[in-house]
Amino acid sequence: MKDGDSIKLWTRHENDVTQKYPELHTPSLNCTSCILDGEVAYIDPATGMIDFESVMERFRMTKLPTYRTERSGSRFNTSFLMC
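Structure (tokenized):
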């Protein structure tokens, strides 16, 4: 959800996961406010395929520095895909 400059991300169970995905905080949307439905996905650069297990591993990480460190190696860099 985008409301002005604020971005919020929720799971289908209404858990706020905004802080887990800092790389998704700056979408290029030409609107003041909107709600998008889609999936957070990790696309394996070697195959171009979505790797669901890596997405779940990233989701289960609880410490921000842990996944930021892992992300610096591009292992857990996610994308937002709209259905």
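Residues 2-82 form one domain. The chain has a mean pLDDT of 75.
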